[in-house]
């Protein structure tokens, strides 16, 4: 086959940040033979689904933007979710990706047969492509807690990602279960604005203080006229110091950087919460950053509002009109919000993905989801994941991660396009070697230092990138083809 002899067809699953990125990059190359399947009715993924009060990204907005499409209009250092969704809407149109998206179309299964991916929608429609890209997001299947009596609650009850906007909250007694990033944002936003607010915490969280900087019209004008200012927010000395400290801290639980972070969060608790009893209730018994760090400029201030009550005594059961605690106390409630997180190990599931010779992704992932350098899987040729399992996690910009992964994927796809091979997938040995090294290193990270979190697999090993971010940048620069099997038809 001669160079550029193959005109490939691509199927991308998901029109969130990563799927739109894939569409933009394909359009840039002049590709038109692709489709992005999206189960929802709009773009933006997590930012379309999460509309709860206070929803915001805890990565600085200027870093949480495509590297090729800065946005001087961000209203704040940490942008609200609705603005982020608006940004993705805009990017979809600006780069001409919208016409390639099939909304309200959920993919049920993907099967590699006769050298191509056969994709079936929930409605039974079929499509075929040479390249399959899963851009299905990380946290979007709500995790509903298994608390006795939950179904008996007679008030309004919903998961944080299914926010009910039709309620007049000012008149309600609201309970929020869960105090990850979501629960903390909801409570900070609702405090003082509802009749009574109870925050149920199974495990208190360390709270990292952060600036509540809003950008003025002058700031925005400066960003418009001088993009270097945006660069500075993204990667100037302050950003580098923050990132460097955090990186050093997570890969080594005994590092001085983690000690520094520990000291910051402890001081935040000491200095912000006046009542010693409340302070003790809010004090975690594990190290800072063991769970995903929660950033908040005002959570401690807000929970001291007289209408807010923090309960850490443990939920016994849900009753028809409220929540019974293990110590026998009872909170009568009208609204119960489940800020209980997501099924973080789902990734592309519940889709069934069948690779070469009937290989089943679910079987390969029986213990935990894995992928060679988080992107490719043996026996699943020409299948690529953006923000797949074991990529970097922990307060980094997932956009930067996806952009680097796309750069890597492009180089593998180029092998198909040029005709050098018709199938590309990593070897089993390469994945096993990667997983062995990764698992060993992951056990030393702060995520394994003694707490429960969505980072841990069933055996308690963090499902994370355990090395410096620079190493991730390096490996994403160029695939190591010695680890790949290239099959020519
Ligand atoms: P998280 O971070 O997974 O937090 C879930 C919270 O829900 C956490 O406080 C859990 O307590 C709590 N939870 C879960 N199940 C229960 C039950 N059964 N009873 C009581 N409490 C429970 O989800 P978020 O939505 O806040 O954040 C997800 C990510 O989205 C976040 O990391 C950012 O990346 C954005 P636990 O700590 O397990 O004791």
TrEMBL record:
<keyword id="KW-0812">Transmembrane</keyword>
<dbReference type="GO" id="GO:0050661">
    <property type="term" value="F:NADP binding"/>
</dbReference>
<keyword id="KW-0472">Membrane</keyword>
<keyword id="KW-1133">Transmembrane helix</keyword>
<protein>
    <submittedName>
        <fullName>NAD(P)/FAD-dependent oxidoreductase</fullName>
    </submittedName>
</protein>
<keyword id="KW-0274">FAD</keyword>
<keyword id="KW-0560">Oxidoreductase</keyword>
<dbReference type="InterPro" id="IPR051209">
    <property type="entry name" value="FAD-bind_Monooxygenase_sf"/>
</dbReference>
<dbReference type="GO" id="GO:0050660">
    <property type="term" value="F:flavin adenine dinucleotide binding"/>
</dbReference>
<dbReference type="Pfam" id="PF00743">
    <property type="entry name" value="FMO-like"/>
</dbReference>
<keyword id="KW-0285">Flavoprotein</keyword>
<feature type="transmembrane region" description="Helical">
    <location>
        <begin position="7"/>
        <end position="26"/>
    </location>
</feature>
<dbReference type="InterPro" id="IPR036188">
    <property type="entry name" value="FAD/NAD-bd_sf"/>
</dbReference>
<dbReference type="GO" id="GO:0004499">
    <property type="term" value="F:N,N-dimethylaniline monooxygenase activity"/>
</dbReference>
<dbReference type="InterPro" id="IPR020946">
    <property type="entry name" value="Flavin_mOase-like"/>
</dbReference>
């Amino acid at each position: 086959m001669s160079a550029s002899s193959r005109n490939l067809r691509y199927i991308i699953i998901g029109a969130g940040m990563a799927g739109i990125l894939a569409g933009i990059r394909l359009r840039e190359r002049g590709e038109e033979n692709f489709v992005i399947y999206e189960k929802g009715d709009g773009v933006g993924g997590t930012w379309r689904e999460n509309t709860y009060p206070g929803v915001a990204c805890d990565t600085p907005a200027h870093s949480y933007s495509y590297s090729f499409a800065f946005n001087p209009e961000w209203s704040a250092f940490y942008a609200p979710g609705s603005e982020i969704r608006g940004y993705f809407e805009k990017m979809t149109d600006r780069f001409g990706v919208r016409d390639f998206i099939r909304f309200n179309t959920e993919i049920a299964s993907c099967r590699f047969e006769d050298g191509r991916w056969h994709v079936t929608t929930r409605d039974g429609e079929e499509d075929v492509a040479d390249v399959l890209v899963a851009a299905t997001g990380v946290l979007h299947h709500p995790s509903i807690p298994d608390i006795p009596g939950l179904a008996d609650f007679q008030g309004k009850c919903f998961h944080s990602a299914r926010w009910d906007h039709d309620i007049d909250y000012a008149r309600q007694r609201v309970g929020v279960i869960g105090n990850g990033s979501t629960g903390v944002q909801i409570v900070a936003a609702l405090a003082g604005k509802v009749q009574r607010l109870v925050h149920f915490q199974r495990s208190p969280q360390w709270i990292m203080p952060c600036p509540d900087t809003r950008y003025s019209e002058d700031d925005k004008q400066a960003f418009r006229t001088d993009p270097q200012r945006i660069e500075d927010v993204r990667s100037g000395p302050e950003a580098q110091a923050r990132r460097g400290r955090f990186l050093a801290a997570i890969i080594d639980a005994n590092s001085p950087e983690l000690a520094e972070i520990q000291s910051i969060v402890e001081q935040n608790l000491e200095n912000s919460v006046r009542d010693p009893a409340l302070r003790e209730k809010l004090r975690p018994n594990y190290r800072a950053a063991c769970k995903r760090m929660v950033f908040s400029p005002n959570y401690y201030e807000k929970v001291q509002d007289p209408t807010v009550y923090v309960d850490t005594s443990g939920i016994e059961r849900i009753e028809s009109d409220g929540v019974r605690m293990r110590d026998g106390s009872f909170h009568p409630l009208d609204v119960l919000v489940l800020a209980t997180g997501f099924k973080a190990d789902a990734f592309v599931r519940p889709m069934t993905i069948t690779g070469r010779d009937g290989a089943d992704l679910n079987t390969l992932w029986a213990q935990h989801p894995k992928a060679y350098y988080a992107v490719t899987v043996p026996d699943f040729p020409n299948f690529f994941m953006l923000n797949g399992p074991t990529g970097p996690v922990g307060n980094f910009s997932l956009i930067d991660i996806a952009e680097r992964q796309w750069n890597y994927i492009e180089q593998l796809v180029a092998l198909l396009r040029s005709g050098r091979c018709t199938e590309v997938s990593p070897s089993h040995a390469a994945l096993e070697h990667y997983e062995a090294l990764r698992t060993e290193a992951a056990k030393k990270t702060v995520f394994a230092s003694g707490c429960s979190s969505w980072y841990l697999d069933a055996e308690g090993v963090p499902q994370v990138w355990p090395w410096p971010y620079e190493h991730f940048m390096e490996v994403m620069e160029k695939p190591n083809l010695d680890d790949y099997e290239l099959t020519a038809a």
